[in-house]
Write a structure and sequence with these properties.
The structure holds two protein chains of two kinds.
Chain A: H1 18-31, E1 41-47, E2 55-61, H2 67-70, E3 71-72, H3 77-82, E4 101-102, H4 110-114, E5 118-125, H5 133-142, H6 153-161, E6 169-172, E7 187-190, H7 204-216, H8 223-247, H9 259-272, E8 277-284, H10 293-315, E9 322-327, E10 348-354, E11 362-363, E12 383-384, H11 385-396, H12 402-405
Parallel strand pairs in A: 2-8, 2-9, 5-11, 5-12, 6-7
Antiparallel strand pairs in A: 1-6, 1-8, 3-4, 5-10, 9-10
Helix pairs in contact in A: 8-9, 9-10
Chain B: H1 9-18, H2 24-32, H3 36-45, H4 52-56, H5 68-76, H6 82-99, H7 103-115, H8 126-140, H9 145-153, H10 156-161, H11 175-184, H12 192-201, E1 205-207, E2 215-217, E3 227-229, E4 232-234, H13 242-253, H14 256-270, H15 277-289, H16 294-303, H17 305-309, H18 318-328, E5 331-333, H19 342-353, H20 376-388, E6 400-402, H21 405-408, E7 415-416, H22 417-428, H23 435-445, E8 452-453, H24 461-472
Antiparallel strand pairs in B: 1-2, 3-4, 5-6, 7-8
Helix pairs in contact in B: 6-8, 6-18, 6-19, 7-8, 8-9, 9-13, 11-12, 14-15, 15-16, 18-19, 18-20, 20-24, 22-23, 22-24, 23-24
The chains are: A alpha/beta, B mainly alpha.
Amino acid sequence: MTSGTADGCGCRDYDLTRRSLLRGAGVAGAAGVTTSLVGDVLTASVFGAEPRGNVLVVLSQRGGVDGLSMVVPHAESAYYAARPSTAVPVGRLLHRDATFGLHPSLAPLSPLWRSGGFAAIHAVGLPAPNRSHFEAMEELEDADPGSRDRVGWLNRLIGALRQDELFEGVAVGSNVLPTSLIGPEDGLALSTPNSLATPYAGTALGTSVKRGLTEMYGTGGRPVQEAGRQALALARRGGRYTEAAQEGPRQGAVYPGSPLGASLRDAAALIRSGLGVRAIAVDSGGWDHHVNVTGLMTSGLADLSGSLSAFFADLGRESSRVTVVTVSEFGRRLDENGSGGVDHGYGNAVLVLGAGVRGGRYYARWPTLSPGRQVEGDLAVTTDYRHVLGEIVRARFPSVDSSSVFPSAGYRRTGFML
Amino acid sequence: MRFPDALPEATQHLADRFSYGVDPALVADVRTHGGREGWWRAQLARTDPQSLRAGLVPSWFPLLRNPPALTALLASRGVRSSWVVGQELIAQTFARRILSRHQVHETMVDFWGNLLYVPASESRSYAWRVDYDEQVLRRHALGTYRDLLKAAVVHPSMAGFLTNDLNRKGAINENLGRELLELHTVGRRYSERDVRHASRMLTGFQVEVLTSFEARYVPARHDTGTVRVLGFTDPNRDPDGRAALGRMLGYLAGHPATADRIAHRLCVRFVSDDPPDSIVRSVARAYLRSGTDIRATLNALVRHPEFQRSRHAKAWNPSDDVVHTARVMGLAPTGALTPGAFLYRLIGAAEDMGQVSLRWPRPDGWPETTDNYLSASRVLRSWRHHLDLSGTQGDLLQGVTVASKASQLPSAWPRSLAELVDHQSQRLVGRPASTVVVRAVAAAVGKPATHRYAGPDSVPEVDYRLLRGTVLNSPSGLER
């Protein structure tokens, strides 16, 4: 056996710096990941060296959420005319201003809205319409049109944080990285906080097993060899995350028993564990409303708001460094279809919650729903989603050059961040 | 040294890609058919009689044969949920992958099922999902893509999943029409008008989704009038639009863009995550020339030089990993009577690793690229799973026949530890052991590579488990 021991088993220590991993990681990065959703929810995260740094949580509503039901433009008669059976009645809306109101299922987040920690932005989206789920998601997460490199914007954010850490990108809830995390920075996926050790760790057999594994995964640039090295490194550090998760939610927070609830519960544990997480991507499925948009939005938003409300309660004081933003590949058509649903559309609404948010109000360069302002029967986009994300990056990660995260996107401030 | 139960490299490669793992039965079949070519032809023709045990698999899941109306009724009464139906379908699928003699057929059922994708347990499609498996995927997996597409698109399970039951004259629902173009045929090269026209052609199919699931064609729901999709035009005058729909699907199946898309996906599955253009072009050409014949298309793929150049370029995805491990370790399921049965434990292990066949929620199917399944946590869990199945005992081993130690080890003795590692490497991984793996096993077992064992009985259980588990846990054990 070789010398050097961090864990008392006589195993070689394969802690690698980011740079040494990067040399080989080109293989995995170039191979690319084409898609990102596993099960109903996925979370992915990025670690930095600063254990108490600011954290960005990107919650993807996969399928294309109906922003017009989530943040209802109640002053528009066109909305009620286009949706005779599915419009949300104005009397049921929460926190109405002259133009907008929130869907009633968002009630669990009302305290946050009132305290100014929750804002909504409307008519946000891709620069040009794309009604294909798969392409729109790719574009949304890659956020670098014209480039053939498959590097996602969260991956560029990690790179810009410039920290020499072993795990720069970690996916939790799945073993498939979202497009936003793909790129030269290392990706790592954890499906649950459990079983993050080498086989039979803590037993004599486990010690024998680990001796064999460390022999086999010392060198080599094949993807499986890279993955094995990361696995051994994870096994040395995953314990802190496992422990934080096993302690359970704090402050009496109760998460819905949904995949999204479980995912945000794990995300909170990851933040509390002090491993230095900086960005977490959470995927939530089920937002494709071809049918029964009323029922799906009522239950989906109840799950979303209940999960987020528990998440912030659970984080307690830690929430002062955590900002959450929702994104979705596209909005829905203005007109309802023949099935009480709405087909693929364009402009959408985005929710921003937590640290640094100038909340309790709506933001929009509202295009209105008048026929001349629609884009092929859809809400127009007047705020590039990259500018929304860019504003958060600028406010919460001031050391990062946001133009390197969103190349050629330009920048126009909306003002929803402090 | 080469052990007699090892296959030549080129044959091993073919079997690594087109089977769920080389076991003694597969090696025997290769011998019977005089080598790789003969085995491949017999696999495509499915002329060999099915093994007895594989033939019994459907009888382990009698309730999967309930008619859709009864399946729906039992679910609505809380007797047997859609989740249970899906779980049984996945267990049956895993059992067939482990036991079937027709490995290429099983592989192609998986491939097409992941392209013309309908998940298990989805609430609008589950009642018909088993029928979809039998009547669409299994029937047409080695036929023509044209017939497969025609059968899949009009099937009530697909209709339910992509809401075509709601698509009718005067209330067009574009869900299936869009995915037919984008996922099932030409890819993203359609206009919004193409989607609308294709959707109109798809009207007429009624399924009582969420109630009786009764399915029928209702001409009054069909939207007649000229349909134009990507160069296809049909007057679509007949109130019964099925013949016109058949013409449109035939056109789309034979479209060059469909050929490119299917060829690329086949090559990503069977060659490498980023396949060379030359093989993709050859496969697309064979697809078009043969009139979408799947066997001709696969022949072009496996006979192209790039196919053999791609050895070890793919990884086992988690579901295939657990099936592969069962096959190479000599573990044959014998039933599925209890939730703790081996087959259900395999599903649990695959779930832990992050990928269970038929549990992907979206219509695009699981990614066919495999490098992206190689996350750190998945690797940790694969390692654990391989070791769990490496011995002759273990709490996962219920409802399964465990091969004897003697049958898994060499026949001539004594053997050094190094020789045993080499033997197991050829059996489990299909390659001779590298010096690194020999060293790793020696380190794990705590004995020198020269240590000699007198016979199978003198190999202690812990050595046996560490030997086999470490070999399968080597980097080569995750590659195919």
